[in-house]
TrEMBL record:
InterPro entries: Metallo-B-lactamas, Mito_Persulfide_Diox, POD-like_MBL-fold, RibonucZ/Hydroxyglut_hydro. This is Persulfide dioxygenase ETHE1, mitochondrial. Keywords: Acetylation, Dioxygenase, Iron, Metal-binding, Mitochondrion, Oxidoreductase, Transit peptide. Its cofactor is Fe(2+). The keyword Metal-binding applies. Its EC number is 1.13.11.18. The lineage of its organism: Eukaryota, Metazoa, Ecdysozoa, Arthropoda, Crustacea. It is found in: Mitochondrion.
């Protein structure tokens, strides 16, 4: 699944989901202002938060989880204060609440680009901590959520609109690509609904069809890089610059380790991160989850 943001300044956000269920893409035609803090992941230095002012009424911040190397994205309408959070992580729910409160924002939706296999979503805990907010995921994921979206659906916050696009198999604009397209890589296709041929088609049809200067923001990076562009990935992605047949062979032979948290993450993520939680998470959030 993909989501485009179409606002009054012709912005777009696309949420795409290649490998598993649904990923994200956001496109804006504005200039960026970046303020980066630092933390570490896999011995590389990465920016912990990135603040991008796109326009007077659009707010964007990139957030990072050191454990799963997951990026979350906070988007808001500056005037109405309505906000959406893409791919929140349960371990960092309190950080996200503090940030949203501190900025005076009202969380409308926490959106999962897909049912993650490497961490538990923060959307269940966030809807308890920030009353009135709702969780969102694709219908195709078959996971519990307040709102299920399908290709062509629109998600609104203030005057901004997110258009959902389906990208099965694992956008100066911006796009949130989930795990479909990673920086110089892509989502694995060896479990869940993974399908290498479908992923290849999703990337070419839904992401490489965007303008070359679109900035792409993935759900993860394991090398300390924050973002990329359509042009860079078309030229330098070692998997996606190959033919479809070569790509399928590459994906068959990745031999990646099973994600460390998958057996805990998938049962919890099927139910919005509200139930089937590991005991330490139940203990941490028992008052808000009424356990
Ligand atoms: N070691 C990590 C899992 C790493 C991994 O499998 N990442 C996924 C996305 S999260 S399910 C992936 O698609 N990787 C593609 C790649 O080429 O690395 C852990 O134990 O969590």
């Amino acid at each position: 699944m993909s989501i485009f943001l179409v606002g009054k300044y012709c912005r777009q956000i696309i949420i795409h989901n290649p490998q598993i269920k649904n990923p994200l893409v956001l496109s804006l035609a504005q200039s960026f202002h970046l303020c980066a803090g630092r933390s570490s992941c896999n011995k590389s230095t990465v920016s912990m938060t990135q603040h991008i002012s796109m326009s007077e009424d659009f707010f964007f911040k990139q957030l990072f989880d050191r454990v799963s190397c997951t990026y979350s994205y906070l988007l808001a309408d500056v005037k109405s204060k309505e906000a959406v959070l893409i791919d929140p992580v349960i371990d960092l729910a309190e950080r996200d609440v503090r940030l949203i409160d501190n900025l005076g924002l009202k969380l409308k939706y926490s959106i999962n680009t897909h049912m993650h296999a490497d961490h538990i979503t923060g959307s269940g805990v966030l809807k308890k901590l920030l009353l009135g907010s709702q969780s969102v995921i694709s219908k195709a994921s078959q996971a519990l959520a307040d709102k299920h979206v399908e290709h062509g659906d629109i998600i609104e916050f203030g005057p901004h609109k997110l258009e959902v696009r389906s990208t099965p198999g694992h956008t100066n604009g911006m796009a949130f690509t989930g795990d479909t397209l990673l920086i110089r890589g892509c989502g694995r296709t060896d479990f869940q609904e993974g399908d290498a041929e479908m992923l290849y088609k999703s990337v070419y049809d839904q992401i490489f069809s965007l303008p070359d200067n679109f900035r792409l923001f993935p759900a993860h990076d394991y090398n300390g890089i924050l973002d990329t562009t359509v042009s860079e990935e078309k030229r330098f992605n070692p998997r996606l610059t190959k033919s479809k047949e070569e790509f399928v062979e590459i994906m068959k032979n990745l031999n990646l380790a099973y994600p460390a948290q998958i057996d805990k993450a998938l049962p919890a993520n099927k139910v919005c991160g509200l139930y089937n939680l590991p005991s330490e998470m139940e203990e941490k959030f028992k008052s808000v989850l009424n356990i």
